[in-house]
Amino acid sequence: MSILVINSGSSSLKIKIFSDIDTPAIVHGNLEKIGEEHSALHCQFAQNKIDKQITCADHREGLEQFFTVLKDNNALVDITAIGHRVVHGGEDFSQPVKIDDNVIATIEKNIPLAPLHNPANLKGIEATMYMFPDVPQVAVFDTAFHQSVPEHAYRYAVPESFYKEQKIRSYGFHGSSHQYVSKEAARILQKPTEQTNLITLHLGNGASVAAIKNGKSIDTSMGMTPLEGLIMGTRCGDIDPGVLLFLLQKYSHDELDKILNKKSGLLGLCGSNDMRDIEAQNTEQSRLTIKMVVHRIQKYIGSFYAQLPELDAVVFTAGIGENSKLIRKLCCENLAHLGIELCDEKNNNVTCGEIQSSQSKVKILVIPTNEEMEIARQTYTLINV
Ligand code: AMP
């Protein structure tokens, strides 16, 4: 058996092929700049690597060329199912689903909630449905894992009709990552997932925190859009809505959208969206930026801790969480009174596993995320029931 996982972005495609659901992908592929004059296709196989420039007008052409490369390398045999990452399932999906016309129509219905992502995800689905009409295809939603968040946590205090008529509420994202690392954490802690209480910190270019009670998400930092919450690579995270009203007097809606999503966060503060650069800068401004990032993370640790009956572990994952010893150290600083205490030596040496001190009541874990493996697992489980 093989499970093909497709993550289709607005101008890019990422694919992975898993030969089973518990071992790393056997093929990693990446196609960037779809629709531009030259698109870059990279494919990593067990024995060889292919990098080439291609021309493709759209996602279907891109996937066709991808699949030609996969076929030429005997990687496209025995595809049992295809799992698609879909960003926004709105309130319609709390589980992965087999894709049919109704599911496609419902993903389309949710386009207003994710105008950039859902159309791109649909392009990938449509292209593979056309090319593999007989292979079952499954949609796995970024929002689904957070559908267990209770209403008092996901609602905004705006007029009631905004929720009833326009579905304005918090949805949360990075669900496959939070779900993957919470299951891995339970495995490391040797507890059943449904008895595990965690705070999971997905700290990448996009960043979010989730409070996990008995294996289920009960709160998360991202909101109706991925703009809320932590300070990210280029997104501002939490901000007084009054600031937006103030800025709207000067900037158009589109300009403000770009400022908050693409020009803020680390980039806006320090001129780079890469934490490695910011750590290396070591200037007054970069030190302030790091303090702001850590302050926001600690604010969420405190507020999510207060919602949990007890805390088994704080989990660090994604690019910054997995790699930045400095950010992990600063995030855990001065939290000993909450039972969270880091061991410097472990923090400096461990790439996956426990990094807390021997006195720490709460475990601190570094767990590399694997959203695609989670999608492959959910796809496999669904088609085998
Ligand atoms: P992701 O979105 O999960 O791929 O994370 C990407 C981000 O991780 C990059 O933009 C960097 O800011 C950050 N990152 C990766 N490696 C390191 C590192 N060694 N130290 C600090 N940050 C890192």
From TrEMBL:
Enzyme Commission numbers on file: 2.7.2.1
Primary location group: cytoplasm
Family stated for the protein in its record: Belongs to the acetokinase family.
Pathway(s): Metabolic intermediate biosynthesis; acetyl-CoA biosynthesis; acetyl-CoA from acetate: step 1/2
Binding of substrate, residues: 85
GO terms for cellular component: cytoplasm
Protein name: Acetate kinase
Residues that hold Mg(2+) according to the record: 7, 371
Cofactor(s), names only, from the UniProt record: Mg(2+); Mn(2+)
Its job: Catalyzes the formation of acetyl phosphate from acetate and ATP. Can also catalyze the reverse reaction.
Oligomer status and interactors: Homodimer.
Catalysed conversion reaction: acetate + ATP = acetyl phosphate + ADP
Keyword annotations of the record: ATP-binding, Cytoplasm, Kinase, Magnesium, Metal-binding, Nucleotide-binding, Transferase
KW Transferase (keyword) present: yes
Subcellular location: Cytoplasm
Residue numbers binding ATP: 14, 202-206, 274-276, 319-323
Top-level taxonomic group: Bacteria
Organism name: Uabimicrobium amorphum
InterPro entries referenced in this protein's UniProt entry, alphabetically: Ac/propionate_kinase, Aliphatic_acid_kin_short-chain, Aliphatic_acid_kinase_CS, ATPase_NBD
Lineage: Bacteria, Pseudomonadati, Planctomycetota, Candidatus Uabimicrobiia, Candidatus Uabimicrobiales
Residues of the active site: 142 (proton donor/acceptor)
Site (Transition state stabilizer): 174, 235
GO process annotations (BP): acetate metabolic process; acetyl-CoA biosynthetic process
Gene Ontology terms for molecular function: acetate kinase activity; ATP binding; magnesium ion binding
Family matches, as Pfam families: Acetate_kinase
Cofactor note: Mg(2+). Can also accept Mn(2+).
PANTHER family registered for this protein in UniProt: ACETATE KINASE (PTHR21060), ACETATE KINASE-RELATED (PTHR21060:SF15)
